[in-house]
Amino acid sequence: MSAQNVLNLIKEKNIEWVDFRFVGLSGKAQHISLPAVEIDEDTFVNGVAFDGSSIPGFRGIENSDMVMMPVTETAYVDPFTAHPTLIIMCDIFTAEGERYDRDPRGIATKAEEYLQSTGIGTDAYFGPESEFFIFDDVRFETGMNKSYFEVDSEEAAWNTGRKEEGGNLGFKVPVKGGYVPVQPVDTQQDIRSEMCRLMMEAGIRIDRHHHEVATAGQGEINFRFDTLTKTADNLMKYKYIVHNTARQHGKVATFMPKPLFGDNGSGMHVHMSIFNAGSPLFYEKGAYANMSELAIYYIGGILHHAPAIIAFTNPSTNSYKRLVPGYEAPVNLVFSKGNRSAAVRIPIAAVTPKGARIEFRTPDSTANPYLAFAAMLMAGLDGIKNKIDPRKLGYGPVDKNVYDLSEEEKKDIRSVPGSLDEALDALEADYEFLTAGDVFTKEFIENYVEYKRAEAKAVSIRIHPHEYALYFDC
């Protein structure tokens, strides 16, 4: 879509405001709105200025002038605003006109450019499965003398005896019993369908939606894969629509990995493949799971560098409340065909040559998608370049339920980091593969680690309510 096409769309849809958006290190969207009558072709040439010093992890106040450069192909009409508004994602540049090396979207674009420069392939395709909860109520507070959270849902297992409903209607979702039940157990069919309708109107191709395993409103909507940066753009759009549709229904949606103790958390399983000029590179008929040697090496790169890339794919302290055995979270760094207990699963049901792909099951949606997808691609490409064979390094294949293996069988299997700090330690020890092609810079990684260390410390120094249960009577 050209700048002129965007200007035509503004007239056609009677747009009043144009919302320019970018994504910071946290993965959250930021925005500035301009009157549509002030938008012309120069806007797309000169960009929109903003203060980079007010964005955590960006720039100091002494050098804060930055520019959002609109990416016209990302334009779509905001389905939620009272005044007709057009949303456009942007890349970030310095005031001097250089691409900003801390811009997550710019890093994703550089990763795609690096793939093409290697001669391995032309396109990397990504398809995330981002799970979420929809609650009716959320309350939390942390302070000097109190710390708590409380969430509620009309379909939660703990509400079988609740009287406040004006007559309890039953049909609650049992713990770990929420996978694809029909109504009335699934209370959120219409909300998810509305989310899907709005996503399709915004240009996202929807595959399916359903209730997920956990009680209290866990759901999943799958959308069609695309190239790396476009998929990250779509995931930002997806989360925006999920959050705001839930709000319109008087509910609240969260992509937090582990909002409930004792039930499944929300992951973001990521499917990946590489094509060369339209031809799939991951398929070889008759090989293990019909995977080519190139695909096996890609898996080797993912598993070998997993502790480091998990600092991007699972970048919150809450991520490691989900990455524990027993809740379908893959904590063991092995690969397998069709096996959901492995960190890397190779889908084998109804797969065509063009559908041949791998699935990295560890990530969650606290990830900044631009950084996470770029890190995964760089790890996989390093595996291909250096022929990292996971079969020779103890990464499988393991075609059994990993959780059922004996201690002897599991003794040589590596596990994911147990905390955000451990993942950041791994990133500091293993980052060279990310700097190939100047995709990630050493300065960016150092800044990212410092930014995330502060989050980890903020949690670690605070008193946990369960510590009162354990130690108050000492």
TrEMBL record:
<feature type="binding site">
    <location>
        <begin position="271"/>
        <end position="273"/>
    </location>
    <ligand>
        <name>ATP</name>
    </ligand>
</feature>
<feature type="binding site">
    <location>
        <position position="212"/>
    </location>
    <ligand>
        <name>Mg(2+)</name>
    </ligand>
</feature>
<feature type="binding site">
    <location>
        <begin position="264"/>
        <end position="265"/>
    </location>
    <ligand>
        <name>L-glutamate</name>
    </ligand>
</feature>
<feature type="binding site">
    <location>
        <position position="340"/>
    </location>
    <ligand>
        <name>L-glutamate</name>
    </ligand>
</feature>
<dbReference type="GO" id="GO:0004356">
    <property type="term" value="F:glutamine synthetase activity"/>
</dbReference>
<keyword id="KW-0067">ATP-binding</keyword>
<feature type="binding site">
    <location>
        <position position="328"/>
    </location>
    <ligand>
        <name>L-glutamate</name>
    </ligand>
</feature>
<comment type="subunit">
    <text>Oligomer of 12 subunits arranged in the form of two hexagons.</text>
</comment>
<comment type="similarity">
    <text>Belongs to the glutamine synthetase family.</text>
</comment>
<keyword id="KW-0597">Phosphoprotein</keyword>
<dbReference type="GO" id="GO:0016020">
    <property type="term" value="C:membrane"/>
</dbReference>
<dbReference type="GO" id="GO:0006542">
    <property type="term" value="P:glutamine biosynthetic process"/>
</dbReference>
<dbReference type="InterPro" id="IPR027302">
    <property type="entry name" value="Gln_synth_N_conserv_site"/>
</dbReference>
<dbReference type="GO" id="GO:0046872">
    <property type="term" value="F:metal ion binding"/>
</dbReference>
<dbReference type="InterPro" id="IPR014746">
    <property type="entry name" value="Gln_synth/guanido_kin_cat_dom"/>
</dbReference>
<feature type="binding site">
    <location>
        <position position="220"/>
    </location>
    <ligand>
        <name>Mg(2+)</name>
    </ligand>
</feature>
<feature type="binding site">
    <location>
        <position position="340"/>
    </location>
    <ligand>
        <name>ATP</name>
    </ligand>
</feature>
<dbReference type="GO" id="GO:0005737">
    <property type="term" value="C:cytoplasm"/>
</dbReference>
<feature type="binding site">
    <location>
        <position position="354"/>
    </location>
    <ligand>
        <name>ATP</name>
    </ligand>
</feature>
<feature type="binding site">
    <location>
        <begin position="223"/>
        <end position="225"/>
    </location>
    <ligand>
        <name>ATP</name>
    </ligand>
</feature>
<dbReference type="GO" id="GO:0019740">
    <property type="term" value="P:nitrogen utilization"/>
</dbReference>
<dbReference type="InterPro" id="IPR027303">
    <property type="entry name" value="Gln_synth_gly_rich_site"/>
</dbReference>
<dbReference type="Pfam" id="PF03951">
    <property type="entry name" value="Gln-synt_N"/>
</dbReference>
<keyword id="KW-0436">Ligase</keyword>
<keyword id="KW-0963">Cytoplasm</keyword>
<feature type="binding site">
    <location>
        <position position="207"/>
    </location>
    <ligand>
        <name>ATP</name>
    </ligand>
</feature>
<feature type="binding site">
    <location>
        <position position="269"/>
    </location>
    <ligand>
        <name>Mg(2+)</name>
    </ligand>
</feature>
<feature type="domain" description="GS catalytic">
    <location>
        <begin position="104"/>
        <end position="474"/>
    </location>
</feature>
<feature type="binding site">
    <location>
        <position position="361"/>
    </location>
    <ligand>
        <name>L-glutamate</name>
    </ligand>
</feature>
<dbReference type="GO" id="GO:0005524">
    <property type="term" value="F:ATP binding"/>
</dbReference>
<keyword id="KW-0460">Magnesium</keyword>
<protein>
    <recommendedName>
        <fullName>Glutamine synthetase</fullName>
        <ecNumber>6.3.1.2</ecNumber>
    </recommendedName>
</protein>
<dbReference type="InterPro" id="IPR036651">
    <property type="entry name" value="Gln_synt_N_sf"/>
</dbReference>
<dbReference type="InterPro" id="IPR008147">
    <property type="entry name" value="Gln_synt_N"/>
</dbReference>
<dbReference type="Pfam" id="PF00120">
    <property type="entry name" value="Gln-synt_C"/>
</dbReference>
<feature type="binding site">
    <location>
        <position position="359"/>
    </location>
    <ligand>
        <name>Mg(2+)</name>
    </ligand>
</feature>
<dbReference type="InterPro" id="IPR004809">
    <property type="entry name" value="Gln_synth_I"/>
</dbReference>
<feature type="binding site">
    <location>
        <position position="129"/>
    </location>
    <ligand>
        <name>Mg(2+)</name>
    </ligand>
</feature>
<keyword id="KW-0547">Nucleotide-binding</keyword>
<feature type="domain" description="GS beta-grasp">
    <location>
        <begin position="13"/>
        <end position="97"/>
    </location>
</feature>
<feature type="modified residue" description="O-AMP-tyrosine">
    <location>
        <position position="403"/>
    </location>
</feature>
<feature type="binding site">
    <location>
        <position position="322"/>
    </location>
    <ligand>
        <name>L-glutamate</name>
    </ligand>
</feature>
